Fold this sequence. Notes:
Blueprint: H1 3-15, H2 39-53, H3 70-83
Amino acid sequence: MNVEEEIIGMLESVLSLKGRGAGFQRHTPLLGAVPELDSMAVLNLITGLEERFGFSIHDDEIDAETFATVGSLADFLASKLAAQ
Length: 84
């Protein structure tokens, strides 16, 4: 499994990007750059990650930096998966 591809797929689905996610790369900015990524979308994305990968994400584990770029979100996911 490619973690970045998983993240991009989840972003595409949760944010209803209509194919725009296909152009996303590791350095693509998210929070503040993708209008669809508002506070409700962040919650939906967190819930989707928890359901898809079977782990819990606690409030103190995440901050704005987690959602700064595709890469930062992928790194967070990779660390959660490694801890399982």
